Amino acid sequence: MLRQKYIIVETSKSEEDLPVCSPWSVCNKVDTYDTPRVERQCRCPSGQTCSASLTPSDGHTITDKNRQFKLCEPIKKLPKCRYFRDVTWTFITYPDNVTQQIMHCACPKNSVAYIIKRHAFQTEQGLGFQYSFACSPQSRLRCQRKEPCRLFTVKKRPQFEEVNTNTLCQCPHGHRCPRHHMDPGVIPGKTYTEDSIRTYSGYCM
Fold first, then answer.
1. Which top-rank group of organisms is this from (predicted)?
2. Sign of CA dihedral 136, 138, 144, 148
3. Fewer CB near the terminus (10 Å): N or C of the chain?
């Protein structure tokens, strides 16, 4: 039996320091891009353990591209989202850099989540933001000549790089789209210094 190798990113000193998860909150985020990484978000109530498995078939996982969102509750109890209409999850950032992600419904198979709304709110500590995401069918369009097939957004964080990937189109038969931002066929794009973000474009090879 193969042992799963991954890095655990501690957001608190101990399990007790983690906040208790509210209903349908993401308790662990598992990033399978490059070296798998588990980022702990909150602890499940009543002593229940939050899954840190790298397999998405544990009954507590919502998958989005190279990320797995682990929930305390079984995902079979989540309703199915409708394309473009329902909010699949909300992601909240608070002024003290604490984040929370709450699931509302599960996207249909072969969907991608995209941001539909950003809402700012004021607290005693300062300004926070709530981002709402909806589901879209994955693009089946064929890539045109000299058109990128995938975009990579790389954000430098204190302990690691966080990479988001967006597939834009399908490569022609016999060609493949780069899966990593350091692969051949990837060209560096814009740099956003204030947010520590750099973009890359991948082209069919």
1. Eukaryota
2. positive
3. N
Looking at the DSSP bridge assignments, the partners of residue 40 are: 28
DSSP 3-state of 40: strand
For the chain, percent helix, then strand, then coil, each to nearest 5?
5, 45, 50
Tokens of 175: 């060609």
CB atoms within 10 A of CB 101: 20
- CA torsion 50-159-162-24 (nearest 10°) is 20
Per-residue confidence in pLDDT tens, the chain, 205 aa: 344 555 555 555 567 788 999 999 999 999 998 888 899 999 999 889 999 999 899 999 999 888 999 999 999 999 999 999 999 999 998 888 788 999 999 999 888 888 888 888 998 888 889 999 999 888 788 999 889 998 888 888 777 788 888 888 999 999 999 999 999 999 998 887 766 788 899 999 9
